[in-house]
Amino acid sequence: MKVCILGNGLISLTLAKTLVNQGIYVDILSSKNNFKYKKNQTLGISKSNVDFFNKNIINIKNLLWDINKIEIYSENLNNEKILDFKNYNEKLFSIIKNHELYDLLSLSLKKNRKCNFKKILNSKNLLRRDYKLIINTDLFSPLTKKFFHRRIKKNYKSSAYTSIIRHKKLENNIASQIFTATGPLAFLPISNTETSIVYSYNGRDEFNFKKIVNRFNKSYEILSYKKVSSFELQLVNLRSYHYKNILAFGDLLHKIHPLAGQGFNMSLRDINEILRIINLKKKNGLDLDSSIFKEFEDRMKHKNFIFSNCVDFIYEYFNFENNIKNNILSKAVKYLGKNYTINKYFTKIADSGLII
Ligand SMILES: Cc1cc2nc3c(=O)[nH]c(=O)nc-3n(C[C@H](O)[C@H](O)[C@H](O)COP(=O)(O)OP(=O)(O)OC[C@H]3O[C@@H](n4cnc5c(N)ncnc54)[C@H](O)[C@@H]3O)c2cc1C
Predict the structure, then answer these.
(1) Residue 31 carries which DSSP code?
(2) What is the pLDDT at residue 85?
(3) What is the CATH number of domain 2-352?
(4) Is the pTM of this model over 0.90?
(5) Is 355 exposed, middle or buried (0-12, 13-18, 19+ CB in 10 A)?
(6) For the chain, percent helix, then strand, then coil, each to nearest 5?
């Protein structure tokens, strides 16, 4: 059994490693061999997804920085804290550097004889009959244009700006996010001396990244900044997850605003579901064919759609409050967040996704 994965980003490699661990042969086809993540990109991975990663994919314990509390602030409410989430005696989630995770997966797959990296100049030449199953994570592949162009899309007309600050040493296990008048600004610790910053700016005027960070930074004595990178922001949900024996996957399937740090987490839950279906088929002695893709779409499409729209709702909620120049919505969040059950429910959704 051989599966073809198109694209060589993080999700492609994470999925490939999951499949080779199951004894499935994988060809990773990409047009660019030397794809690299920028050194200032980080990911927050939820606790249950970290456990899933360590158990079913590869041990990433050494690459993680644990976060045990998240604090949310609102500029509209005089920068007051409106919410916090904590998991007593346990981590809530962990931060990892994209390039370190990528290198670990890449090295492990290159050593695995079940996995082959192949360069293709044009996947137009790739025929559906060349492989029994094709999983497409490549946004720019001709197959994407041909079979996966029908999507529900929203352009945020804004970008996320990311950097890493180096600062004086401190105990650094609390992540914070401030809903500023011009977009959410997150401080995500990655060591006792480094913190990743993600600022999703929805203003129109030019802005100075360092000035914004300095204005809202309460915890760090900053020594230096790494280069600032920017990413355009969109909400995308594909209308069809698969076409015959080709499945779309990763950010090609669903792309969300990074304010909740959930894009990669959603795809990990997708991988978990694929794994569950494969194991069930194997257990029942059934063929691993394209019915896996149909079952996957039936189980995950509605969940992913609702989840990505919940993230969008949070974005629009604070955006609306800024537009009406009132702080009633931040006050409402502060009030609701004090309720133990509601707080616990939100923590559970952020960790494991929608349970429906
Ligand atoms: C600012 C920001 C912060 C985020 N924070 C989090 C977080 O904390 N937690 C979380 O769960 N998710 C987060 N995400 C989302 C997460 O980064 C994506 O969901 C994840 O990287 C998608 O992986 P992918 O392999 O599908 O896509 P990509 O990594 O975009 O790759 C897709 C495909 O496109 C090709 N490709 C992409 N870029 C290039 C390039 N430059 N050159 C050549 N080929 C290229 C590759 O072949 C690849 O297969 C964040 C996203 C952003 C923008």
Answers:
(1) S
(2) 87
(3) 3.50.50.60
(4) yes
(5) exposed
(6) 40, 30, 30
CB atoms within 10 A of CB 32: 11
Substitution candidate for ligand 1 out of 4, 5, 10 with most atoms within 8 A of CB:
10
Is residue 339 very low, low, confident or very high in pLDDT (cuts 50, 70, 90)?
confident
Quickly count helices (H) and strands (E) in the chain: 9, 18
* Ligand 1 atom, smallest distance to 265 CA: 11
Burial class from Cβ neighbours inside 10 Å (0-12, 13-18, 19+) for residue 313 reads exposed
- Report CA(202)–ligand 1 centroid distance (Å): 20
Ligand 1 closest atom vs CA 140: 34
Closest ligand 1 atom, residue 251 Cα: 26
Q: Rounded to whole angstroms, how far apart are CA atoms 233 and 245?
A: 30
- What residues contact residue 113 under an 8 Å CB cut-off, 6+ apart? none
Nearest CA to ligand 1 atom 1: 160
pLDDT of residue 97: 96
Question: Whole-angstrom Cα distance, residue 35 to residue 218?
Answer: 36
Residue tagged 């795809």 (tokens): 267
